[in-house]
């Protein structure tokens, strides 16, 4: 990929977001790494001093507006909506405030960030929006009602924005991986072990990898390569789509 982009990545301080930040910074792009944890962003800057960082809360519309207002003329032409969190609980025990937080960060926050980024993309007649979804944008698992609802919502959101941006060179797509070995997934393993009364190894083998015929975790490199493709000229007419990295999960 020869073009150099201004790429804003949310949830950039750990897991998938950190892998994307490292990848695009190494490739020479101008990266704005966003996360709620200022201390984690400070640590990121020690290794990647060329990366600009912004700390704000995706569940707060005012903070989103302030963050974009601080960018000035450095508005992104690529937006990667990656920030996410998880809570594992039966619905009747799901704390309402936790349910609302997951939706606010992963669905409403994504919509508000996209809303903020679109005007400059339209002016420049170029934009690439990549939502990091999940296999749970396509299928469900028990005890993850808020997460599954948010990720399913991303698919419909992306299709709608794809239709609204048909007249300019802007695309929006959702990348839907199976389980990626990240700190978020590590925390899920522990939660699922408690919920299902299993060992953590049983959770990995019987819950996470069993639905995937290939029985392998998705790697960060697979995700960065997929996002690279979506930014390439070859993908200019791919919009409103799900790119599924699931080891055959949904082929069954």
TrEMBL record:
Keywords: Oxidoreductase. Coiled coil: none annotated. GO terms for molecular function: 3-hydroxybutyrate dehydrogenase activity. Its EC number is 1.1.1.30. It comes from the Bacteria. It is an enzyme of class 1 (oxidoreductase). It holds the Pfam family adh_short. The keyword Oxidoreductase applies. Belongs to the short-chain dehydrogenases/reductases (SDR) family. PANTHER family: 3-OXOACYL-(ACYL-CARRIER-PROTEIN) REDUCTASE (PTHR42879), 3-OXOACYL-[ACYL-CARRIER-PROTEIN] REDUCTASE FABG (PTHR42879:SF2). This is 3-hydroxybutyrate dehydrogenase. It comes from Steroidobacter gossypii.
């Amino acid at each position: 990929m020869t073009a150099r982009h201004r790429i804003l990545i949310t949830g950039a301080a750990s897991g998938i977001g950190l892998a994307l930040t490292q990848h695009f910074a190494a490739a020479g792009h101008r990266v704005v790494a966003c996360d709620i944890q200022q201390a984690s962003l400070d640590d990121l800057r020690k290794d990647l001093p060329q990366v600009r960082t912004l700390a704000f809360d995706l569940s707060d519309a005012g903070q989103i507006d302030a963050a974009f207002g601080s960018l000035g003329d450095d508005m992104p032409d690529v937006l990667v909506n990656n920030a996410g969190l998880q809570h594992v609980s039966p619905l009747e025990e799901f704390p309402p405030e936790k349910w609302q937080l997951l939706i606010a960060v992963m669905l409403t926050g994504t919509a508000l960030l996209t809303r903020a980024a679109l005007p400059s993309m339209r002016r420049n007649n170029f934009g690439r929006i990549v939502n990091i979804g999940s296999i749970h944008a396509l299928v469900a698992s028990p005890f993850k009602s808020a997460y599954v609802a948010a990720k399913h919502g991303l698919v419909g959101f992306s299709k709608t924005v794809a239709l609204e941006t048909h007249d300019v060179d802007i695309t929006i797509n959702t990348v839907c991986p199976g389980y990626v070995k990240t700190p978020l997934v590590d925390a899920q393993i522990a939660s699922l072990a408690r919920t299902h009364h299993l060992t953590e190894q049983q959770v990995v083998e019987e819950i996470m990898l069993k639905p995937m015929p290939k029985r392998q975790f998705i790697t960060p490199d697979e995700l960065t390569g997929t996002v690279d493709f979506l930014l390439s000229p070859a993908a200019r007419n791919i919009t409103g789509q799900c790119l599924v990295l699931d080891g055959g999960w949904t082929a069954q």
